[in-house]
Specification:
By secondary structure, this protein is mainly β. It contains 4 helices and 32 strands. The strands form 7 sheets. The chain has a 6-stranded mixed sheet with strand order 1-8-7-6-4-5, with helices on one face. A 5-stranded antiparallel sheet has the order 2-11-10-9-32, with no helix packed on it. Helix 2 packs across helix 4 (138-154).
């Protein structure tokens, strides 16, 4: 039995109990993929009495990924709870490729969830497991099941149990209120990390998921802070004259890349966090900002206007050599590197405004993924399958998401105010 309470679920929940509760974001699927694999997630037997519909959460996770198209519940003529009850011919007639079934029961140590994944065409069981979770851990348990199902079918690690950070704002002018939040990857279970009457920008997760770096204007000029999520302890790591912006953690968590203008025009710097030793990386009359690490830690990508407009460049940290990476169009900025290091996601301005785009580093081919016209601040899921970004809907700032191939998309609006500056966490276990 996989007892989530004693593995990662309880640890994560305990680490965040000191954070103030905030309003959740609500997922809106805006476009499904035409290549999505048909799957059915049958309502789990005896699950109606639970405060969370585990099967619904699993189906929503899989649909949001763009890889799967869950069958509507009203189209299910049968509701098996175990592999022994599955009649494969009926599901094959519905063009279902995979089937998830399960049963829940209340035990002394929490809620026991037994689930199975079936290959309909092969008429065989691919996965079966029992997990136990407390009553307040049911969403986490559902995301865990989604991760296992996703990986069993795609051979890609699921990222549904990860988190996102984002900034909200309410009001205007002197009455504006800002807050930094973290939430589940689907926008639920939101927790407030920091509240301020001054802007908060550029949250960035540490590689182990225990800290956030961000920019705060609480002293009326930008400064970079690092905050521990479990304790709430925070430290100001830079407060130089001028710009202090865009912190980015090194893959080993020992350094922060950032953009500082303390010596004139904004340049990229590296800070070793233990010693606070600072190293200047770029030296150019242009504006260099928005650093992003390559997964191997050997190079940095950044945005520079040294060619006349914003473009993406790469700096080799060993040789010091720099090269321009983007040439399509006059505006390419805010690059984020896919986990495999072979692709970057960025903001590209074309005929339809500012969009999230993907560029293959091997052939330099750039493909636009979104259709919003005002996208900003992309952040990549740790498995490379999705990108979350900020955009506009009805005059309000919302979060959007798009699959890495651009075929599926969703939005995460807040009930009130604007949502901006998303950052996807690393894997949390």
């Amino acid at each position: 039995m996989n007892v989530l309470k004693t593995t990662w679920l309880a640890a994560v929940l305990l680490a965040w109990t000191s954070l103030a509760q905030a309003a959740d974001l609500t997922i809106e699927i805006t476009r499904g993929s035409d290549r999505a694999t048909p799957i059915a997630v049958v309502p789990f037997a005896d699950g109606e009495s639970l405060p969370q519909d585990i099967a619904r959460i699993v189906a929503d996770d899989l649909e949001r990924s763009g890889y799967f198209e869950p069958l509507a519940r009203e189209a299910m003529f049968d509701r098996p709870a175990s592999s022994e009850e599955v009649r494969f011919g009926e599901w094959s007639a519905l063009d279902v490729r995979y089937l998830v079934v399960g049963r829940v029961s209340r035990e002394a140590d929490g809620v026991r969830i037994a689930y199975e994944l079936m290959d309909v065409s092969g008429q065989r069981r691919l996965l079966g497991e029992t997990v136990t979770a407390g009553g307040d851990e049911l969403r986490g348990a559902a995301h865990y099941i989604s991760d296992q199902v996703f990986e069993a079918i795609t051979d890609i690690r699921g990222a549904f149990s990860t988190r996102i950070a984002y900034v909200t704002s309410r009001g205007i002018g002197d009455s504006a209120a800002y807050a930094l939040h973290i939430a589940d990857a689907d926008g639920r279970n939101s927790q407030q990390v920091l509240a301020s009457d001054q802007p908060i920008m550029s949250p960035a997760w540490s590689p182990d998921g225990t800290k956030l770096a961000y920019v705060s204007f609480e002293t009326e000029r930008p400064a970079i802070y690092v905050q521990e999520l479990a304790s709430g302890r925070r430290a100001k790591v830079t407060a130089f004259e001028g710009l202090n912006s865009a912190p980015a953690w090194s893959p080993d968590g020992r350094r922060l890349a950032m953009s500082l203008s303390k010596d004139g025009q904004p340049d990229i710097y590296l800070m070793t966090l233990d010693s606070r030793e600072l190293r200047r990386v770029t030296r150019n009359p242009g504006i260099d900002t928005e650093p992003a690490w390559a997964p191997d830690g050997r190079s940095l990508l950044f945005t520079s206007d040294r060619s006349g407009g914003p473009q993406i460049y790469r700096h080799d940290l060993r040789s010091g050599e720099e090269e321009r990476l983007t040439f399509t169009g006059s505006y390419n900025a805010r690059a984020r590197v896919a986990p495999d290091g072979e692709t970057i996601f960025l903001i590209h301005r074309g005929g339809n405004g500012f969009q999230v785009a993907r560029q293959d580093l091997a052939n330099d081919r750039l493909v636009t993924l979104t259709q919003t016209g005002n996208a900003e601040s992309p952040s990549v899921a740790p498995n490379g399958t999705m990108v979350i970004f900020a955009t506009q809907q009805g005059g309000n700032g919302v979060l959007g998401g798009v699959s890495a191939d651009g075929r599926a998309s969703f939005r995460l609006p807040a009930a009130q105010g604007d949502v901006r500056e998303p950052a996807w966490s690393p894997f949390l276990q």
